[in-house]
Amino acid sequence: MTSPSAAPIRIGIVGHGNLGRGVELAITHNPDLRTVGIFTRRDPAAVQPRIAGTPVHRMDDLAARADQVDVLVLCGGSKDDLPLQSPALAARCNIVDSFDTHAHVPEHFAAVDAAARAAGTTALISAGWDPGLFSIQRVMGEALLPDGASYTFWGKGVSQGHSDALRRVPGVAGAVQYTVPVEAAMQQVRSGTRPELTTRQKHTRECFVVLAPGADRETVRQAIVTMPDYFADYETTVRFIGAEELARDHAAMPHGGFVIRSGDTSDAARHVIEYRLQLGSNPEFTASVLVAYARAVYRLHQMGRHGAHTVLDVAPGLLSPRSAEELRRDYL
Amino acid sequence: MTSPSAAPIRIGIVGHGNLGRGVELAITHNPDLRTVGIFTRRDPAAVQPRIAGTPVHRMDDLAARADQVDVLVLCGGSKDDLPLQSPALAARCNIVDSFDTHAHVPEHFAAVDAAARAAGTTALISAGWDPGLFSIQRVMGEALLPDGASYTFWGKGVSQGHSDALRRVPGVAGAVQYTVPVEAAMQQVRSGTRPELTTRQKHTRECFVVLAPGADRETVRQAIVTMPDYFADYETTVRFIGAEELARDHAAMPHGGFVIRSGDTSDAARHVIEYRLQLGSNPEFTASVLVAYARAVYRLHQMGRHGAHTVLDVAPGLLSPRSAEELRRDYL
Fold first, then answer.
1. What are phi and psi of A81, to 5 degrees?
2. Candidates B138, B146, B314; nearest CB to A331
3. For B133, phi and psi rounded to 5 degrees?
4. B269 and A252 in contact by Cβ < 8 A?
5. Which residues of A touch B135 (CB under 8 A)?
6. Which CATH code fits A9-130+283-326?
7. How far is A131 from A99, CA to CA, in rounded Å?
8. Closest CA relative to residue A33, chosen from A291, A319, A328
9. CB contact at 8 A, A309 and A300
10. pTM for the full model?
11. Is A195 an 8 Å CB contact of chain B?
């Protein structure tokens, strides 16, 4: 599972939804990485690689091919796939996953850590942007300005959970929901006054809905804006559009957000650290993050650092294909 | 030079200009750190600590007190102090410095590394925000979006070098210069079109000048706006103000800036990562960064990682006083 550092790092992709396709693409932008293949539970013949020529293998073939892979990038879902896949595959290979159920991170970490330590592999869980890059900013912001407050805003971007909720409303034939940060709340936060803001005070919800034949606009609108948990307590707008417009203008999956830390070092000095992501495609960017962390996992493994890690355990320089010397000379 | 992890980390402050005073202040915001004292080349009786009760020692006493210090924070200048002090003190103690002459980082690193390795100490050079936090963003931005372009904007903030240049103009009794990022250039960069921009296309210069008695406004203005290197090629504005206004409104040292990475993962997906600092006091914020990295240096030393490091070698979690477990549970 090691290769000389001059040879490309060999990446296996587990799963081939939007994220797996993004990983295929991301690897093409990184000359020091090479795709070994996609591993799928589907019939390999039914899988269409994003990049022509990417080999597709059955998941069952992974055991036999483990020695051809330096790092596996796991592209399954956090609810059903990763809780089982990550520990099982960490027992065999170095892995990186994008486990994003914040509340269950500790148990997922423990399961992956035990499997990786026993096998002498290196794993990194919860790579991506939140958890991931945003987590780094939350930790660094507090460490750099201990007397302060941190804020996370999401959007503008598509929320899959809220879009799914819209689609379950009777009379809805298709829908997309955008989470939008409230500009006035952001300005308040940037002023450094440390306002107390709930998630709903920080965000509004914009819904684009295609009506089913015969459905009544007002009935559907009311069902949406009064839906508990999802919309009732938010400022929610509903726009009805045609199926063509939905397909044409709302098929992309943009997302992003802000992590803002404001704090004081003395009565006279107030500071604001702001980190912002504007992502044209949530899955493609997340895939790009996974791939950079796959490089770091490979290096951690070479250093003998086994077991589970998170982005908080990874020095920034390990993400770059460049040498530490080059980074000091040209990037510091 | 080690202490049980429950006891506070003992910090020595070398030098007592604005940065050293900021370090005194920053330590008060970090309950896991304690100031052992200020070490000065001046007469200790002439040094006024920022925090009442901070002990002040002669530099010459450092050797005798080295075993009372876990990490020395070096607060001298990059031109004359740190090239000698950092290697000399790394031969005796763990250190962190804010060496900021970008072009000489490799030789400074080599000198400090040799001294620290020989002594079995841990050193971190060039902590601060640029180099420092901005360096992290430049490295991570490129690693996360390899097909892209990076931009650094500085300001709005006081440039000491340009303020000094103003004060050397005949007829100038006092002056402060602000570097201001050009909003239109920033918008261009945020659009993801990857414009080619020079430092002068990205910044304008605002000068606040107090005239000496009898000096002529137009003569002074011309001398400023035509000054080669500093102002001639920039859009420069000069405002004449009174000595009281200069003292009242321009004594603070605000600074900050932006690191922006734009890049594409496919023809359809463009992304922008933006990191912004708005600093009420450049020296106080820089001191706060140095202190967080002093904590990381202490931990690296406990792990047996000797020699020189930069911010690029430090995992984000090491900056926080919280345990890795707590960070995973509450911050990921």
1. -90, -55
2. B138
3. -60, -40
4. yes
5. 331-332
6. 3.40.50.720
7. 8
8. A291
9. yes
10. 0.95
11. no
Domain boundaries for CATH 3.40.50.720 within chain B:
9-130+283-326
Could you give the CA distance from residue A204 to residue B98 in angstroms, rounded to a whole number?
A: 43
- Report A:216-275 residues touching B (Cβ under 8 A): 252, 264-266, 268-275
**Structure confidence by residue, pLDDT tens digits, B262-308:** 999 999 999 999 999 999 999 999 999 999 999 999 999 999 999 99
Cα-based torsion angle of the residue sequence A312, A315, A321, A326 in order, rounded to the nearest 10 degrees:
160
Phi and psi angles of residue B19, each rounded to the nearest 5 degrees, phi first? -70, -45
A164–chain B nearest CA distance, Å: 23
CB count, 10 Å around CB of B126?
Answer: 29
Cα distance between residue B189 and residue A143, in whole Å: 29
Cα–Cα dist B294/B26, whole Å:
11
Question: Per the CB < 8 Å rule, is B276 touching A276?
Answer: yes
Asked if B32 has any chain A CB less than 8 Å from its own CB, the reply is: no
The interface predicted TM-score (ipTM) is 0.95
Residue pointed to by tokens 């020989």: B118
Name B71's Cβ contacts closer than 8 Å, sequence gap at least 6. Answer: B9, B10, B11, B12, B93, B94, B95, B96, B294, B297, B298, B301
Give A319's contacts in chain B (Cβ within 8 Å). Answer: 139-140, 143-144
Helix axis angle for A82-90 and A105-119, nearest 10°, is 20
Helix runs in chain A, H state only: 18-28, 62-65, 82-90, 105-119, 133-144, 160-167, 183-190, 199-202, 217-225, 243-249, 282-302, 324-330
* SS3 (DSSP) at B28: helix
| CA dist., res. A130 & res. B28, Å (int) | 31
A88: number of Cβ within 10 Å: 14
Please give the average per-residue pLDDT across B220-236, as a whole number.
95
Alpha-carbon separation of residue A291 from A24, A32, A297, B144, B326 (angstroms): 9, 11, 10, 8, 26
Which residues 6+ apart lie within 8 Å of A235 measured at CB?
A204, A205
How many residues does the structure list for chain A?
A: 332
Q: How far is it, in rounded angstroms, from Cα A183 to Cα A46?
A: 45
Q: Please give the CATH architecture assigned to the domain spanning B135-279.
A: 2-Layer Sandwich (3.30)
Q: What is the number of CB-based contacts under 8 A between chain A and chain B?
A: 205
Q: Is the separation of the CB atoms in B166 and B205 below 8 Å?
A: no
Domain with CATH 3.30.360.10 in chain A: 135-279
Say whether residue A110 is in contact with chain B using an 8 A CB cutoff: no
Q: pLDDT per residue over B89-144, tens digit each?
A: 999 999 999 999 999 999 999 999 999 999 999 999 999 999 999 999 999 999 99
CB < 8 Å to B269, chain A: 252, 279-281, 284-285
Residue A124 sits at the vertex; the CA angle it makes with B290 and A164, to the nearest 5 degrees, is 110
